[in-house]
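FYI - complex with inosinic acid, inputs then prediction.
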Amino acid sequence: MLRLHDKYFEPFISATDIDRSVERLARQISSDFPGEVPIFVVVLNGAFMFASDFLKKYPRNCKISFVKLASYQGTSSSGQVKHLIGLEENVEGQTVIVLEDVIDTGNTLVEIHRIFSGMNVKKIRVATLFYKPEAYKQSFPVDYVGMKLPERFVVGYGLDYDGLGRNLPEIYQLKERNMINLVLFGKPGAGKGTQAVFLKEKYNLVHISTGDVFRYNIKGETELGKLAKQYIDRGELVPDEVTINMLQAEVDKNQGAEGFIFDGFPRTTAQADALDQLLKAKGMSVSATIALEADDEVLIGRLLERGKLSGRSDDQDESKIRFRFEEYNQKTAPLIDYYKKRGKFFSVNGIGSIEEITTRLSEVIEKLDTAVNK
Ligand code: IMP
Ligand code: MG
């Protein structure tokens, strides 16, 4: 385990595997340009280590030059490429081979093509040690690739996280944070709200109920709140995108949290996908979804009791209650499969005293593998 600033990394690609890729690239490129003396343009800072090893293995004559560009901030591309050192050589009529450490979104590559566009080069080729095909958004060809990487943040062998990690001889990947992120399921009356209060205390979690988040945003007249209100006022469902943006803002507001309880979200598999994406982008994931199970008849008894006290009309009418159960059965069933497939679905008996049920939930939570990085 490796720590850089606030983040944890684990070994991903060994120095031996890197060396093999570099060797292969050197052989491949030299055999493609037999009678030429290409000029290798190294993109600093990241490519310094790759370039050094590559050029030592390059068996023919070549020239070497450097440009210095920067686009990353933290663990994601800023979308803006800064030009720090330009090219000094005259490359007119020459074969230019750009040496990159990693091609991610491709923004840097666009900038590189811009640099050479007015220089009348004979040809330009791009060689990168690492390439993230899923992240690449441009159409320029990536001619030589050492290794393809998943869309994941890595450090080492020239690549950094905010200035650190460049000197490591192997590649490390960002480790998911050690968090307890729960999705609570349950029919109306199952005790989700009650249990969330206890779990949040016990495990120091942030409870996000989408209903509450909507009310909070609407009340605070935030941009998102105003947007949501338009739909609600028209009697329409708030689109997933709006809900997701709200959730995202809530998660962002609680950066240091040890975990979250999601309550009332996701309700569809599309929303479950969106939640996965949202969390993944932050190095997080759903640890478990837990359904609080209880017999319809017991729940109806509870709700009718609650209706008497609260005066909530939808809790006083048995046919309305049954309709809500039906809705739950229809909509959550696919979600159960969704999480079962990922080994993340748990079900807990929701009949008993509040403490008994908290204990049952805790037994599930404490057995979860929430990744040890602290
Ligand atoms: P692009 O412009 O999005 O293609 O990104 C290229 C630049 O982003 C690289 O030269 C690196 O500086 C940086 N970068 C991309 N992915 C990573 C990574 O996983 N770790 C560290 N830096 C990265
Ligand atoms: Mg770079």
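Residues 46, 71-72, 77, 101-109, 153-155, 159-160 surround inosinic acid (ligand 1) (CB under 6 Å). Residues 318-341 form the longest helix (24 residues).
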